[in-house]
Amino acid sequence: MDKKMLKRTRFFISLLLLVFLLLCARLAYLQVIQYDSYWTRAEKNRLRILPITAPRGEIFDRNGEQIVTNRPGFTVSLVDLGDGYSDETIAYLTNLLHMEKGEIRDKIRSQYYRRYLPIRLKTDVSMQIVAAIAEKRMELPGVLIEVQPIRNYVYGNFSSHILGYLGEGTVAAWVEDYWQQHDDYRYRIGELVGQAGIEMAWEPFLRGIDGGIQVEINSTGQAIAEFERVDPQPGHDIYLTIDIPLQLAVERALAEAVERLVVDEGNAYAGEAAAVALDPQSGRILAIASIPSYDLNTFHRDFSILEGDRRLRPLVNKTIEEAYPVGSVFKMVTALAALEEGVVSPSDRVYCSGSITRYGATKSCFRGTAHGPLNIVEAITKSCNVFFYEMGLRVGIDSLAHYTREFGFGSPVGLTDIFGERRGVVSSREYKRDVYNEPWYPAETMDAAIGQSFQSITPLQLANYTAMVANGGTHYRPYLVEKIVDSGGEVLKMAEPEILHQLEANPVTWERIQLGMIRAALPGGTAGRLADFPVSIAGKTGTAQAAGSGTSIPSHSLFVAYAPADNPEIALAVFVKHGGTGGTTAVPVARQILEQYFNIMPEDPEEEDITS
Question: What residue ranges do the domains of the chain occupy?
């Protein structure tokens, strides 16, 4: 071998030795120095911890009947196998799940910090979607089908405004504060959380503690072996104060009344109604309903339609989120103010000629009826406007506003089991000055005395007011949640009646007002069509002119009542927007509700003339 060839041979041998040494060094670096790092990466690619969603606590009525349960459903999730997310997979899921590509990308970006955990893209998907993904399993790396509990509302549109619904989104600030104090509660982007009603207000109790399962996955992200499992802890069950049959009766009565107005009478303004029934001895809410309602099981599919209905606003809970003029059901406030301020005695009479002229304003009784001389009991019974115009002028707006607030008007009445309660408005010189920068005129006091003017009151406030009249002035905090029970059956929380305020008044004052309401539900009273009811009722009708409306627009129909009159068990407020007179629309609704409560077979009441 010549020197030239030998030199070349030595060069190639040296080069091979160098490459070999480099490979050995690299192998040693990977297998020795970087062993822990690459072992961890390999394990992460092979092993995954898949979360197991905890079943949400169920909701029951006061008798233990299920209202909200859970059912199994399929969720499409996406997991990073170490190489990110392919554009082809995202494009396919965009079409299959009817999602925007940007929406999926946003979920990925928002959850990048937990890249090795599944990102839930869509919950409760159909079997067709599950089948489509299964067929393309090898072409969709990282796409998982998870089974998780889905909320099931047993009665669909039953108590929808009270129960609320779940959705993705930011949790309420107070819920986040609660979770910061309880290490077991963790909220992850993309998870479902209560967005309204009981589901929102009691989120930390209904939400369980998620578990997890460690699995080995294949190259497509599908689990092939299970190693370790931590079972989830179910959420706590909630028992409400409402009774399903009574609640159904309330919702049915309101819906039928609205349908009659719209369909049979061609009332283009009608469509909304609300009712609240309370236990006047505790504040327990027996039934609470807002019409129109919506089906909680199809809520997310129907959301755009529901949100777009600007006239009827079905998403608004009319019992607490809306305040209305109330008309003559307010007259017990004026009666109490007049008796307590000593401007009238129980036996004093005021003559009603059908109208009254004071301070340059002439105002009439309903339909110009001349009632003649009336005492305060008779004035409540016949709902004489002239009598209460006179009482308002004698009492004055300042005292009248004071007693109005004593009944809880103008402030939330204390319901904390759901959110959204409005304050309403009390007619007063302060309100007019602050809002309109105008002085109060004496003639305006006459309107305020019969529930018109600026008076604005929620149906819940009306029911609380009726309960206070029934029990002699005690304002109990209204409540919807009776008790909370954990998955083991242990009672964690039990509601107790809570007195928020006591309206002090002479016993004779309460007796006169209550007697007037009792006689209003007898022949000759404004609620006389209830005279044949087998249980004694104390009630008061109301016909409230819609704010800013003309005479061609129907008034609002109202009725408040409690029964039995001598030992009240139920206090009730019924409101039908643009329903006409109180006796015509609201009273029949109340009758249906009371028939259900007292388990009385319905009868057709005799027709008679109805006043305000």
Answer: 47-74+146-240, 244-597
